[in-house]
Design brief:
Blueprint: E1 8-11, E2 27-36, E3 43-49, E4 52-58, E5 73-79, E6 82-87, E7 99-111, E8 114-120, E9 125-129
Antiparallel strand pairs: 1-6, 2-7, 3-6, 4-5, 7-8, 7-9
Length: 130
């Protein structure tokens, strides 16, 4: 993706499957930490947010949908956590030399209240200022 100076960039993580068949426990995924390599400067002000916002949901669960029958919806607060960073594209310290930076996210996967896996990508984000 191409960004401009002072653009805000956001990342979120969501489970592929929210509730396994036959289980009453849900999966949830959250970005737990960020690591930048070599004291990078192109992405700054890393911040974690709860991401609470009003969303529409079904009034009841497991409602059969029949021909032309509307399903009742209501507005509730939902949490969709995300992390964000600010793109800071400084003047080049060495004109004509591109800057390359790398960042890693650490992601925790829970089933119910149990931490079942911790994942990281090395690097997850690579930033290039040509």
């Amino acid at each position: 993706m191409r960004v401009n100076n002072d653009d805000i960039i956001r990342w979120s993580a969501y489970p592929k499957e929210t509730q396994p068949e036959g289980s009453d426990e849900n999966y949830s995924v959250i970005i737990d930490a960020e690591h930048d390599w070599n004291n990078n400067t192109l992405l700054k002000d890393w911040t974690a947010y709860q991401g609470n916002a009003p969303v529409y949901v079904y009034e009841n669960d497991a409602i059969p949908m029949t021909q032309d029958q509307r399903v009742n919806i209501v507005r509730q607060t939902a949490y969709q956590p995300f992390v964000q960073a600010n793109a800071t594209l400084p003047g080049r310290p060495n004109p004509g030399v591109s800057q390359v930076e790398a960042y890693t996210f650490y992601v925790k996967v829970y089933k119910g209240t149990e931490l079942i896996k911790e994942i990281n990508w090395d690097p997850y984000v690579t930033v290039v200022q040509p």
